[in-house]
Amino acid sequence: xSSVQAIARPYAKALFMFAQEQTKDKTLSDFSNWLxxxxxxxxxxxxxxxxxxxxxxxxxxxxxxxxLTKEVLPDLSIMQAVQDFLSILTEQDRLILLPEIAEAFxxxxxxxxxxxxxxxxxxxxxxxxxxxxxxxALSTYFSSSIELVVKEDASLLAGxxxxxxxxxxxxxxxxxxxxxxxxxA
Length: 185
Known about the structure:
single chain, alpha+beta, Peroxidase, domain 1, 2 domains, 4-stranded mixed β-sheet, 8 helices, 4 strands, about 60% helix
């Protein structure tokens, strides 16, 4: 675990515990949705530049995130909690860690819900039926519910590559060609 992740994890854990304590059923998913948005914004090069620029005050950085959140997610039911959380991060100069906090929050949520995020990369688009079959097989393989993320990459030629946690299953033609090349080398 990197030092950035070590710093971000307690914030994610505290936010997760706060979200769990709320009485509304949608609160946890609202925090997940907001953190997904914050992850995307926080990874953008212009955001990184803005947050690292000493010319901008803490208040400016806080207002940047708050105004952007209000603009993009105007009906967010947890806006006051988001504002309080962002204020804490701003005060402690940790806004730059929002992407890592979002990743840690999702990891905690998946463990709590016994869920596994699985990325499937295929050469061609997978049909809905193929995705259902994959989810069923992967659910059995990982003994958990599956969050499927499907991507296409024509360079794989045919087949699928499956990534989940520390597991990579490569059933692509390109992967087989690589294995053959390594075996012949």
